[in-house]
Amino acid sequence: MISRKNILVIILSLTAGGLLTWWLYQRFHILFLVIFIPLISIGAPLFRRLLTHEKESPLNDE
């Protein structure tokens, strides 16, 4: 079960990430579009693997 402290940390992390994303977009439009969005799309499978604790390969099922 998720505790209140964990929920607070998740909300604060999402808020900080949103503010950082908004600030980067306001300051560096082209840099944001060329680098930051592709980085997010490449990093999504990595974060999914980290959050779900999936094995890196099927051979690790020992």
Counting DSSP E segments of at least 2 residues, the number of strands comes to 0
Q: What average pLDDT do the residues reach?
A: 78
Q: Percent range for helical residues?
A: over 70%
Order of helices and strands: HH
- CA-atom Rg in angstroms: 16 Å
- Class computed from helices, strands and strand pairing: mainly alpha
Distance between the first and last residues' Cα = 28 Å
**Count of runs of 4 or more consecutive helical residues:** 2
Strand content: under 5%
Description:
- The chain has 62 residues and is mainly alpha-helical.
- The protein has a domain at 20-51.
- Helices cover 77% and strands 0% of the residues.
- The two termini are 28 Å apart.
- The mean pLDDT is 78.
In summary, what is this structure?
With 62 residues, the chain is mainly alpha-helical. The model has no long low-confidence stretch (mean pLDDT 78).
